[in-house]
Write a structure and sequence with these properties.
Layout lengths: L3 H7 L1 H10 L7 H28 L10 E7 L6 E7 L10 E7 L1 H15 L7 E6 L5 H11 L17 H19 L2 E11 L1 H12 L6 E5 L5 H4 L5 H10 L4 E8 L9 H6 L4 H15 L4 E8 L8 H13 L2
Parallel strand pairs: 3-4, 3-5, 5-6, 6-7, 7-8
Antiparallel strand pairs: 1-2, 2-4
Length: 326
């Protein structure tokens, strides 16, 4: 609520009025008193109302419609996870819905849940499952995700964070989290989707190669393929052979941000470009696209003028449309 004196400060009409009245105030004492009484009374009333609002207004937690969360402790690796689930609006009790699993659920669960209602006429409505951690501490989330989303290898995190827990995390996902969701919600087993970005994208590649039957759609955004000298690609050859003779029908989306890799002419900067974020992603997409076109549909997209950070929502939006379009 804005007080009358604040209105005077903010509104130019009051300022103009007072510029004319001000010089004449000594000669129109009665008017000045009336104006003064009105302004002071209004200000006291407004301040009283503001004070009353401050005393009675209580903060409430933000509620995500149709969403629940479960904090679990894994029996596989002994670590705690927060599983966030959002169901469709007016869900039909007799219908099964696609399951859309989201790695880094602390970051991407809420945006995904918020985007889909605006696109719902064009997309299938899923049950969203965010996989995250029971904390709001950003450093703790970074520590946990670095460990869970990187496959075993020789590389150490440059900031000294433990890494290489990816194999056990995959077991947690497949043996604990998916069964938890499938026993409580109406999941369409033929439409299961997983999304991951950066380290999450790295883990989705690892999952695709090691357990291609676990999901039908793999969404890989800005994958950190460079990790451990690209050791995640060690599983590509066997996967490419197996997919040719399998009964699987998989869809893969790989996306990059153009500014994730230097493309200029400066030789020094070229030499410093060791991660090859865009080239690694595009080359992998190209190879997978020819592995078994009848069993594996691969799409690759580069978002221009986007960085590794800024591309997050654009990549998520594209992934939602790719996975959920009828």
């Amino acid at each position: 609520m804005i007080s009358l004196e604040a209105a005077y400060i903010l509104h130019p009409r009051y300022q103009v009025l007072m510029s004319f009245i001000g010089p004449a105030l000594p000669r129109i004492r009665t008017i000045s008193k009336v104006i003064g009484i009105v302004i002071v009374s209004g200000t006291i009333f407004a301040r009283g109302a503001d004070r009353s609002d401050r005393n009675t207004l209580a903060a409430e937690p933000v509620v995500v419609p149709r969403a629940q969360q479960y904090d679990i402790t894994s029996k596989i690796n002994g670590l705690k996870y927060r599983i966030m689930v959002s169901t469709p609006r007016n869900a039909d009790p007799g219908k099964r819905y696609p399951a859309f699993y989201i790695l880094d659920g602390n970051w991407y669960f809420l945006p995904a849940v918020g985007i889909v209602p605006d696109m719902s006429e064009d997309l299938l409505t899923p049950i969203f499952v965010g996989i995250g951690y029971p904390t709001e501490d950003g450093k703790e989330i970074d520590r946990r995700r670095t460990f869970d989303l990187t496959p075993p290898g020789k590389q150490k995190d440059p900031f000294g964070i433990p890494a290489g827990g990816g194999d056990n995390f995959v077991r947690v996902l497949l043996e604990e989290i998916k069964p938890l969701v499938e026993t409580r919600y109406q999941i369409d087993q033929a439409r299961q989707i997983i999304y991951g970005k950066s380290y999450g994208g790295l883990l989705v590649i690892h999952l695709l190669f090691a357990h291609p039957e676990a999901f039908q759609t793999y969404l890989i955004s800005s994958p950190a393929i460079f990790w451990d000298n690209c050791s995640v690609l060690a599983g590509e050859k066997d996967f490419s052979q197996k997919i040719k003779t399998s009964n699987l029908r998989l869809k893969v989306l790989i996306t990059s941000a153009s500014e994730e890799q230097y493309r200029g002419s400066d030789l020094k900067l070229q030499a410093e470009e060791i991660y090859r974020m865009v080239d690694n992603a595009s080359e992998l997409a190209g190879r997978l696209a020819t592995a078994s076109p009848q069993n594996l549909s691969v799409t690759y997209t580069v978002f221009p003028d986007e960085t590794h950070v800024s591309v997050s929502l654009a990549a998520l939006g594209r992934a939602l449309y790719f996975a959920l379009k009828p």
